[in-house]
UniProtKB/TrEMBL annotation:
This is Bifunctional DNA primase/polymerase. Residues 207-270 form the Primase C-terminal domain. Residues 19-179 form the DNA primase/polymerase bifunctional N-terminal domain. It comes from Microbacterium rhizosphaerae. The lineage of its organism: Bacteria, Bacillati, Actinomycetota, Actinomycetes, Micrococcales. Pfam families: Prim-Pol. CDD domains: Prim_Pol. SMART domains: PriCT_1, Prim-Pol.
């Protein structure tokens, strides 16, 4: 039995009956909050398994639990997540990526309760691809270290309860997605820090750049910009004076701005713990496996 077979079989089943179907197909599962995405087990997606007894025990304890499936090498499935939110959707960027040939090789598409889409691709065990989020494009990638909620799970939306449901299966040959190429296409990396005529980072231009950041990019963007100024010797209080007003205009609070700037200054003064600050950007933030469990990679 394949993933496609399971997706065809489970729409009329309860999650309690569907979870063993995924496991029987070699797809590890774990329970999530009924009507939601939060894992119910202590270690979240790290607890996912194929063991029939463990799965039965979980759903005896939580009969209405949604089904979570880890992405990446553990399940052999990577997922592109097209978001639908109040401030926009990822479908425009998705269609551009399709036309560019970056989303060929899918296994299936699953409609999410919000009206978005999960697009399933085969993952490669020898070359795992990490999760990422492109907030401005409203497209996320769930690979190694992430998970998705799968059919027939449900979610509580503003217009009622809606289910994750199979939208389509591909008849074409499947192949892994190049997640890095997709990210560069929908969310190009920032250009080097703006500099003035002397070659030093320009506080004015950095502030202008911060003013264009969107939700999901703001903290990392301020941190990155503060690092650029701190690296050339600008003091924390002066960085706050230069970047603070722009950060406040995009919704960051005064204390949040101060914490972020002082954290950037500590990092650039030698407390990086081996992380290269010059390579840090709002789109590349290192995290340990333990940190990844706490980050919102599950959809």
């Amino acid at each position: 039995m394949s993933l496609a077979d399971v997706l065809l079989a489970v729409p009329r089943l309860s999650t309690r009956d569907a979870a063993p179907q995924f496991a029987a197909a070699g797809l590890p599962v774990f329970p999530c909050q009924p009507g939601g995405k939060r894992p119910l087990t202590h270690s979240g997606h790290l607890d996912a398994c194929l063991d029939a007894e463990a799965i039965s025990a979980w759903w005896q304890r939580w009969p209405q639990a949604n089904i979570g499936m880890p992405t990446g090498p553990r399940s052999g499935i990577d997922v592109v997540d097209i978001d639908v939110k109040r401030d926009g959707t990822g479908f425009a960027a998705f269609h551009r990526a399709v036309n560019a040939g970056l989303l060929d090789g899918e296994i299936a598409r699953v409609r999410t309760p919000s009206g978005g889409m999960h697009i399933y691709f085969p993952a490669t065990a020898h070359a795992p691809q990490r999760c990422w989020q492109a907030a401005s494009a409203h497209i996320d990638f769930r690979g190694a270290g992430g998970y998705v909620v799968v059919p027939p799970s449900v979610a509580v939306e503003s217009n009622g309860v809606a289910a994750y449901r199979l939208f389509s299966l591909s008849a074409a040959q499947t192949r892994p997605i190049d997640a890095r190429a997709l990210r560069e296409f929908v969310d190009p990396r920032p250009t080097p820090a703006p500099r003035d005529s002397s070659g030093a980072p320009s506080g004015e231009l950095l502030a202008h750049w911060i003013g264009r950041l969107r939700e999901g990019e703001r903290n990392h963007g301020l941190f990155w910009a503060a690092c650029r100024l701190s690296e050339v010797g600008v003091r924390a209080d002066a960085i706050i004076d230069v970047l603070g007003p722009a950060a406040a205009r995009i919704g960051l609070g005064e204390r949040e701005i101060e914490r972020t700037v002082y954290s950037a200054c500590r990092h650039t003064s030698g407390g990086t713990g081996g992380v290269s600050i010059r390579s840090f950007s709002p789109w590349t933030h290192p995290a340990s496996d333990r940190d990844m469990r706490r980050m919102p990679w599950g959809e």
